[in-house]
Amino acid sequence: MSRVLVTGGAGYIGSITTALLLDQGFEVTVLDDCSTGHRDSVPAQARFIEGTILDGEIVRRALEGCDSVIHFAAKSLVGESVEKPDLYRNNNINGSQILFDEMDGAGVTRIVVSSSAATYGDTHEQPILETLKAKPGNPYGETKLAVDNLLTDLAAEENFAAISLRYFNVAGSLKTPTRWLREEHDPETHLIPNLLKATKDSPLKIFGTDWDTPDGTCIRDYVHVHDLADAHIRALNQLIAGRHEIINIGSGTGYSVREVIDTASKVVGYEIPSVNVDRRDGDPAILIASIEKARSTLGWSPMRDLSAMISDTFESKK
Ligand SMILES: NC(=O)c1ccc[n+]([C@@H]2O[C@H](COP(=O)([O-])OP(=O)(O)OC[C@H]3O[C@@H](n4cnc5c(N)ncnc54)[C@H](O)[C@@H]3O)[C@@H](O)[C@H]2O)c1
């Protein structure tokens, strides 16, 4: 039986991917320092090690018995990365380098990694193809690109088999036999969990209504976390020694902030309170993924739509 090391497996996407891996018969070791994740999100059947990827000895212990790695562990708040770029470089780039060195030492060379649409930066090219020259607009995106570049070198020089999945906006929850696994970030910066928290006294802020889009609000591409977790397992089965592939994961469709709010109001049965405020620095107007490579390389397509992302998030918070 195959054992996978999941770094960051106590986090939102990592815990849901762990649950699906276990469901499909994989054994899983989770390594997480619980800096933003939650111990109780790790499914009971997984082996759990609390510790940081910055500690080579702990990583070595976590790799025991594993033949592949899915690497989620990272800090991922854009605003925080602007305030604390060194923290992000150390955790995300140095942490990944330590993980890769230990993998190399242990002869574990198969890896799927969380990359991000933040690597592309602001671009007029929509939908975004993986061949677009990456030009991150913030330190978080720079760290994700640096990790992708490390993997390109490792594939060429050490025969690593690697896939970076570049996610766009992830949303939704997963119901397991024992509990809902869901997004529990503090602070929460993502639109869907935040619009479900909005009240008349604390309405959802719409950052800019004068963008060059049909209704003036920003357009983003949303993918259900269950579909995303499924893409990781497919990627694990498509790894090729000596190759590093970068593959976008999104829905291939853009929704404006206003459209997301209107869909959510229908799903929950009340008007989501919102207020228009000024644009935020650094927000691109439109981000939509081309997902043709995911379809052709992984045989993957998104199965769950925006309403499902919202209704699952809503149900998981009841
Ligand atoms: N959520 C999104 O919309 C989104 C979009 C694009 C990319 N990503 C990437 O996906 C990955 C998972 O994101 P998420 O939303 O699940 O975030 P999350 O914060 O819920 O999960 C990250 C996990 O990594 C752990 N971690 C952080 N640093 C660590 C370290 N040094 N050692 C061990 N564990 C550490 C955290 O405790 C947490 O459990 C991240 O790499 C993120 O950059 C997320």
Uncertain residue ranges:
none
Task: Report mean pLDDT, rounded to a whole number.
Answer: 97
Whole-number total of structural domains: 2
Tally the helices: 10
User: What is the H/E string?
Assistant: EHEEHEHHEHEEEEHEEEHEEHEHH
The residue fraction in helices comes out at 25-40%
- Quaternary: single chain
Bound molecules: nicotinamide-adenine-dinucleotide
Structural class, by secondary structure, is alpha/beta
- What's the CATH first level of the largest domain? Alpha Beta
Widest beta sheet: strand line-up: 3-2-1-4-5-6-13
Named CATH architecture of the largest domain:
3-Layer(aba) Sandwich
Largest sheet: 7 strands, parallel
Q: If you compute it from the alpha carbons, what radius of gyration comes out, rounded to the nearest whole angstrom?
A: 19 Å
CATH topology group of the largest domain: Rossmann fold
* Beta-strand percentage range: 15-25%
Number of strands: 15
Distance between the termini: 37 Å
Shape: globular
What would CATH call the homologous superfamily of the largest domain?
NAD(P)-binding Rossmann-like Domain
